[in-house]
Write a structure and sequence with these properties.
The complex is a heterodimer of chains A (394) and B (298). Chain A is an alpha/beta fold and 394 residues long. Chain A has 14 helices and six strands. In chain A, strands 2-1-3-4 form a four-stranded mixed sheet. A two-stranded antiparallel sheet of chain A has the order 5-6. The longest helix of chain A is centred in the middle third of the chain and has 38 residues. The relative contact order of chain A is 0.10. In chain B, the strands form three sheets. A six-stranded mixed sheet of chain B has the order 6-7-8-3-9-10, with helices on both faces. In chain B, strand 7, helix 5 and strand 8 form a beta-alpha-beta unit. In chain B, helix 2 crosses helix 3 and helix 2 runs parallel beside helix 4. Classes of the chains: A alpha/beta (394), B alpha/beta (298).
């Protein structure tokens, strides 16, 4: 699955694009118009090719349309105030053809009206140029550097989402591993050689390493397949177009600190949640029993995901500050905030400290539950029951 | 050198109001095969888990080789739990190596030892198969090998014969006896009384968390002797003197109880006067009878 995953995802994008490019067929559109106003301005392109027929032949064509070489018949009726356009075809014409013709006709119409209103096309074009606001960030020293809200949002979103995904996927993997050891009964054999705590931590760390390896492979593979595709199919000579494009707009955002924070919150968030997942796994006998426990534990995680967008709109507000300190949401929310540059040092320190203390505590509590749960079978547990286990003598 | 490899004194283990173990004592002489008997739920598994440091006793102490139980002893003890299992998707060889290494062996030693044991148990061709491909009996043989491979001084088996067919049961039983000859001390719990009588030196019978019987099998059986004899005569015998009570009679075969004051010699003499004796045996109660009697009698 590690190798297959990126291939499948890349294929999901590549194949439809490729197929659609191959499937382009130029359709023959025959036009009938009294006069030449539109028909002489309609341009052939990849999608459509226009030809004209005299008016008297229309009826005959309509009767035998199916056997004609044409895809569709466009009749432009004679009316200067309200030109009417009708397309006749044997089957429904494709959207792309329809849009193509419509936009061509709209443009022709627009220009005609502008000319009638005596407006120069050139002046018109200059009016509609796109304006882009250049953003510049002034830091403490008064230095200026290029900013980019788009980039900040993108980085914030991607890193936060990756953390969410990782915690969920690999946390569940830990839980499933614990359950498997319980059901296959091997846990008692292992526990006669190692302490429950060692087994639990071994599993958490082991799954993390598997996850990291998978992730890195995924990213590498997806990137190489995408660049390969770019080179082969889109005739792009510069393989690293994507990277250079990204790097230039990153500018002010301090990439190295983002990467370090990412790693820290990645690991911290994972440790916190995976220990809880391990405890849940130890308390049940089958995966279906885990639902009652997993839901409350993962609500903060899901909520954080939902909050990403509002936080992006107000990265330094009160809500954002609180959520980036509470350890159950901080791995995600702090990563959303960081690229915007508004996070104070004390906020990071507090957030990091709280996260570390919390995951140490959850690991401790989880291990107490784990060592009782792994040998307990058949008991339908509830949260209350689990709490009792914490105080069982070791 | 301490002549008991394991001593458990006044072990108590409570779960709420329920006493899994209530002041249980255990003394395992070095180099013996010790049977831990008892009905289901008696507390045997709890006791074994305490000895293996999987759970801790609420009070009491366990001494291994004279010193209190600590983590270093783990590599000197081998444990085969009753509910035994292995990772289904892992290969046999790889998994056995892993478990052996957990017990402190290095890879090289472990590989050699494993190959040796696999051959002994006739499962060497299964090295590269996944556990889920093995039959139950095969998997249990693998587990047995893994349990004994690190040459522990003390082996603890919880129901080692459950799930084995008679051939494999005999195989395991012989291996246990061979291990005993090499000086390993062995504790095992079972319901199969025939196995116990064949290979155990001492037993302990536990029920409801309490020790009901303990000691050498011979002594225990002696305590339960009640002077009943099973005799086959050449011809039918109808009655005997008052000293002997006929409990059961089926043609030539009699079950006779010798009353207080008399002995088997007198019985034989009286019988010989009446007919020829084909066979004469004391009916010493089997462990099974003793087990049932003790457990239900309380």
């Amino acid at each position: 699955m590690t190798i297959l995953g990126p291939i499948l995802i890349a294929a999901l994008f590549i194949v439809p694009t490729y197929l659609s490019m191959q499937g382009l067929e130029t359709q023959q559109i025959v036009v009938s118009e009294k006069g030449n106003f539109f028909s002489e301005k309609l341009e052939d392109n990849e999608l459509v090719q226009f030809s004209k027929i005299p008016e008297m032949e229309i009826e005959r064509l309509k009767k035998n349309f199916g056997s004609s070489p044409y895809y569709a018949l466009l009749i432009i009726s004679d009316s200067n105030s309200q030109n009417r356009f009708t397309i006749y075809s044997a089957q429904h014409i494709s959207l792309s053809v329809k849009n193509n013709i419509e936009s061509q006709i709209s443009k022709i119409n627009e220009r005609k009206k502008l000319e009638e209103a005596d407006i120069d096309i050139e002046i018109l074009n200059s009016l509609f140029s796109e304006i882009e606001i250049m953003s510049v960030i002034i830091d403490e020293q008064g230095d200026e550097s290029k900013g980019s809200s788009e980039m900040s949002s993108a980085i914030g979103f991607i890193t936060a989402f990756l953390i969410y995904l990782f915690i969920f996927m690999y946390g569940s993997m830990v839980m499933r591993g614990v359950i498997e050891e319980k059901t296959s009964r091997i846990v008692e054999v292992i526990i006669s050689s190692v302490r429950p705590f060692q087994l639990m931590m071994g599993k958490i760390v082991g799954v993390a390493l598997v996850g990291l390896t998978q992730f890195v492979l995924w990213i590498l593979l997806t990137y190489s397949i995408a660049s390969l595709f770019e080179v082969v199919f889109m005739n792009s000579n510069n393989q690293s177009e994507i990277i250079t494009g990204i790097l230039s707009s990153v500018g002010q955002i301090n990439l190295s600190s983002i990467v370090i924070s990412f790693l820290f919150y990645f690991i911290g968030g994972y440790l916190l949640y995976s220990s809880l997942f391990a405890a849940i796994g130890s308390a049940v006998d089958t995966e279906s029993d885990t639902q009652q426990f997993v839901l409350p534990i993962t609500i903060p995680l899901i909520l954080s995901l939902v909050m990403i967008e509002p936080i992006m709109n107000n990265p330094d507000g009160t809500l954002a500050i609180w959520l980036s300190i509470i350890p159950f949401s901080s791995p995600i929310i702090m990563m959303v905030r960081l690229p915007f540059g508004g996070v104070e040092n004390w906020e990071i320190i507090i957030s990091a400290t709280v996260l570390i203390c919390t995951f140490l505590s959850t690991t401790y509590i989880a291990s107490k539950i784990y060592r009782v749960g792994i040998l307990m079978y058949g008991k339908k547990s509830s949260f209350k029951e689990l709490i009792k286990w914490i105080s069982y003598k070791d | 050198m301490e002549n008991h490899i394991l001593k458990a004194n006044k072990i108590v283990k409570q779960y709420g109001d329920y006493f899994a173990l209530n002041n249980v004592d255990l003394s395992i002489p070095r180099g013996s095969v010790f049977g831990l008997l008892g009905p289901n739920g008696a507390g045997k598994t709890t006791l074994m888990r305490i000895i293996n440091q999987i759970i801790a006793a609420d009070s009491g102490e366990v001494l291994f080789n004279g010193s209190p139980l600590n983590r270093k002893h783990i590599s000197q003890i081998g444990y085969l739990p009753e509910e035994r299992g292995l990772y289904k998707k892992m290969k046999v060889g790889e998994q056995s190596l892993y478990l052996a290494q957990l017990k402190g062996m290095n890879r090289f030693e472990a590989t050699n030892k494993l190959k040796y044991w696999f051959e002994k148990l006739e499962i060497q061709s299964w090295w590269n198969k996944r556990i889920e491909e093995l039959s139950k009996g095969m998997a249990q043989k693998v587990q047995f090998a893994v349990t004994v491979i690190h040459n522990p001084d003390l082996l603890i088996f919880d129901e080692p014969f459950s799930g084995f067919d008679p051939v494999n049961t005999a195989l395991i039983r012989n291996e246990i006896l061979k291990l005993k000859k090499q000086g390993t001390s062995i504790i095992f719990s079972t319901h199969r009384m025939e196995s116990v009588e064949e290979i155990c030196d001492e037993i302990s019978l536990i029920n409801n968390g309490e020790t009901l019987l303990q000691g050498e099998i011979i002594n225990i059986k002696n305590n339960f002797r009640n002077n009943i004899f099973s005799i086959e005569m050449k011809t039918e015998i109808d009655n005997l003197s008052e000293k002997f009570t006929i409990l059961n009679k089926k043609e030539n075969i009699l079950e006779i109880k010798i009353q207080e004051g008399s002995n088997s010699k007198e019985l034989i003499n009286e019988l010989l006067q009446k007919s020829d004796i084909i066979s004469f045996n004391e009916k010493i109660p089997s462990l099974e009878d003793i087990f049932i009697k003790t457990v239900s009698g309380e």
